[in-house]
């Protein structure tokens, strides 16, 4: 069986256990504690975080909509200036300020990602987001599982993500 090429192709296979994650839901809600920063700097410039829906359990949502969403991707673009890129992969997890998420655990060591946070919703209890994967100088690959409550019951969204540098200069 042929091994797929990922943006982390230079990372040892043992560290590439999580499949690529790509899903836009709450991607901007990723927040890290300053103590969780990676020692391995990333190259500054333009970055893309592509998310793909793997599993969607959303009570009340029509089944055909959920089937259509499964496998769909969305890409978030980020610009990392040199001062942010020097903090490593943690810089790619910084959300937009309006996200108001609370980090429960954020560990980036030895090429492994272990990230758990809670993000408020307009109604109901906070959404819990758990991410696990691997990272290197060229980006990260991770699986994100989001759980929460809707008016109609428990919700679960699983997504695969891949982050890769797209160029040395950010487009404004």
Give a description of the structure.
This protein has 172 residues and is mainly beta. The protein has 2 helices and 7 strands; from the N terminus they run βαβαβββββ. Strands 2-1-7-6-5-4-3 form a 7-stranded antiparallel β-sheet. The longest helix is centred in the middle third of the chain and has 7 residues. The N and C termini lie far apart (42 Å).
Overall number of strands:
7
Order of helices and strands: EHEHEEEEE
Report helical residue fraction. Answer: under 10%
Number of helical segments?
A: 2
Write the layout of secondary structure elements.
Elements: E1 45-57, H1 63-69, E2 73-80, H2 82-85, E3 102-109, E4 112-119, E5 127-136, E6 139-150, E7 153-167
Antiparallel strand pairs: 1-2, 1-7, 3-4, 4-5, 5-6, 6-7
Summarize it.
The protein has 172 residues and is mainly beta. 6% of the residues lie in helices and 43% in strands.
Question: Descriptors for this entry?
Answer:
43% strand; disordered N terminus; single chain; 2 helices; 172 residues; 7-stranded antiparallel sheet; mainly beta
């Amino acid at each position: 069986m042929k091994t797929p090429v990922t943006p982390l192709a230079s990372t040892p296979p043992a560290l590439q256990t999580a499949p690529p994650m790509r899903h836009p839901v709450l991607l901007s809600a990723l927040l890290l504690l300053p103590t969780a920063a990676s020692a391995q700097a990333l190259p500054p410039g333009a970055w893309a975080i592509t998310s793909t829906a793997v599993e969607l359990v959303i009570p009340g949502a029509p089944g055909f909509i959920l089937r259509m969403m499964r496998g769909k991707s969305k890409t978030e673009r980020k610009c990392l200036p040199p001062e942010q890129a020097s903090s490593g992969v943690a810089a790619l997890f910084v959300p937009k300020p309006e996200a108001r998420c609370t980090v429960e655990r954020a560990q980036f060591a030895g090429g492994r990602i272990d990230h758990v946070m809670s993000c408020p919703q307009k109604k109901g209890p906070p959404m819990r987001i758990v991410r696990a994967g691997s990272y290197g100088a060229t980006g990260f690959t991770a699986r994100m599982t989001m759980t929460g409550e809707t008016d109609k019951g428990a919700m679960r969204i699983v997504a695969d993500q891949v982050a890769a540098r797209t160029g040395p200069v950010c487009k404004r």
